[in-house]
Structures are given as C-alpha cells and as structure tokens.
Design a protein that fits this description.
The chain has helices at residues 27-36, 41-51, 54-60, 129-136, 200-213, 225-228, and strands at 4-6, 99-101, 107-109, 118-123, 147-149, 155-157, 163-165, 172-173, 176-177, 183-188, 221-224, 252-254. The protein is globular, with a radius of gyration of 17 Å. By secondary structure, it is an alpha/beta fold. Strands 1-12-11-4-10-5-6-2 form an 8-stranded mixed β-sheet, with helices on both faces. The protein has a two-stranded antiparallel sheet with strand order 3-7. The chain has a two-stranded antiparallel sheet with strand order 8-9. Bound molecules: zinc ion (ZN). The site of zinc ion has 5 residues, from loops.
C-alpha cells in the first residue's frame, strides 16, 4: 500500500523506560475539550493565541494545537482531579532513557473502546526539553504529549499512556478521525527546520521507548504528525527524521505524504 514502509524485523531488547502510572489528572481539561468542540477551529485558535504568554506564543506555531473534531464528548472523568505538577527546580534532565514524570493538566479520558495502536512522532520546535515541559504543563497552552525526548535521550512524561494527550489536533489515520483517541504522542526536541539534527542518543531513546510501550499497548503503527494532520499540509513535523532508525520496533512506519 502506498505510503507504507513495513519493517517487520524482530522485537528484541527492552529499555529502562516506561509509563510511570496514572497519577492525578484534571477534570477541567475535559470540560475544556467539550467547550472547544462547540467552536470553529478559527475561534479555537484565536482563543488559544490570546491565552498564551508572549514567549509561549512565539513557540506555538510549531506546537500541536488541541483542536478536536466536533462531536466528541469525553466520558466523565470523576477519578481525576485538577493537578498540575511544578517544574522541578533546579531543572536536571534525567539522562539517557531515564524518565522524569511531570504531570500535565492537559489530558482527558480516552473513549472506552479505544485501541491504542498508533505512535505519533512530533518535533517540538521549542529548543529545549525544559521549555517544552513548561509549555505542556501550563494549562493555558491546551497542548501536551505523552512523552518528550531530549537531544541526549532524556525522557519527560507528561501524560499517562492510558489517558488521552492533546498532541494531534484535527487528524485522520487509517480512516479514523481524532487520532488523539487511539495514539501515543511522542515529541522530539528539535527545531523542525530540516537542518537541526536528531542525535543518535535521541533516536535510540525513541526506539527504546517504543519497544517498551509495545509491551503494554497493542501497537501496530508509527506515523508522523505531518501524515495525520488535517487539512493536509497543516503540519510538517518531524521534518527530516531518520525513520529507518525505528526498524527494530517491528511496527509499520507510515510517514509518506498524502
Ligand atoms: Zn506535532
């Protein structure tokens, strides 16, 4: 099938990384989602822009705006209270393939019938892991990802894989709308300009993370934000990513432009 690069090698080896659990979440975020679905994309974008700080707005162009396909009503989420973790100070990156959990308020429950079978890879545009973590844990940003991987392979988790992070925006994959429902979003710290390299430590960490997630979720696909974003051309990340580095995951890599 056009657009598919099926790489079916064996699955060997495990990273030291993993999902560190559910933790407490945010009921308000779901109300946020419901409210957002009642507006047009334009209104949502305008609201987002005005709610961001000037510094964050400078980065927002490359971020994954939390637009949702109209009609989605999140299930009630009574077990999750609003919780926003403070950014650890001083900031110390956890190191290669080690995970620091900093909970984001920007998440919701997945649909009850969601089968989490897709990894969506992004580039942050934001230049550092610390700044990305700050953006994803700020409620006003209305964006998040499950994981962000720094240039040295350090991993920050902001949302449990069992919950729905807000990374994809309006999106389609395998004839399914709203990719946030059934995907795990992984951001790579990179300027997304086609020139900024993805260091080996970072590509190795992504491979190890996906291998670990394969043990917990029925993963079948790896795709790019560029491939799933609608309208086509809305996103181009992760620009220049060396996809062949993910061969050992054994998953279908679906990244060719539509
Ligand atoms: Zn993205």
């Amino acid at each position: 099938m056009d657009g598919y690069l099926k790489l079916l090698t064996g699955r060997v080896g495990l990273g030291r990384v993993g999902d560190v659990g559910l933790g407490k979440g945010c009921g308000k975020s779901d109300r946020c989602e419901q409210k957002m679905t009642k507006h047009t994309n334009l209104v949502r974008l305008a609201t987002l822009k005005t709610s961001l700080s000037i510094s964050l707005a400078a980065f927002a162009v490359g971020l994954c705006v939390a637009q949702e396909v109209p009609g989605f009503t999140p299930a009630k989420d009574p077990s999750q209270s609003k919780f926003q973790a403070p950014i650890p100070r001083p900031w110390i990156e956890p190191g290669f393939c080690r995970v620091l959990y900093v909970q984001s308020p920007n998440s919701g429950v997945r649909p009850a019938d969601a089968v989490i079978d897709t990894i969506v890879v992004h580039a942050t545009v934001i230049p550092t892991l610390e700044q990305t973590t700050a953006a994803f844990t700020r409620e006003a940003s209305q964006v998040s990802a499950h994981y962000t991987i720094g240039r040295d392979g350090s991993i920050v988790q902001n949302v449990s894989g069992f919950r729905r992070a807000w990374h994809a925006g309006v999106s389609v994959f395998e004839d399914r709308n709203n990719v946030n429902h059934f995907s795990i979003g992984i951001e790579l710290v990179n300027l997304d300009d086609g020139k900024d390299p993805y260091p080996k430590a970072q590509t190795d960490a992504l491979c190890m993370l996906i291998r670990t997630l394969e043990r917990r979720f029925p993963l079948k696909y790896i795709t790019s934000h560029e491939y799933i974003a609608r309208p086509v051309g809305r996103k181009n990340d992760p620009l220049g990513y060396p996809w062949k580095t993910l061969t050992d995951t054994g998953l279908a890599i679906v990244v060719t432009k539509n």
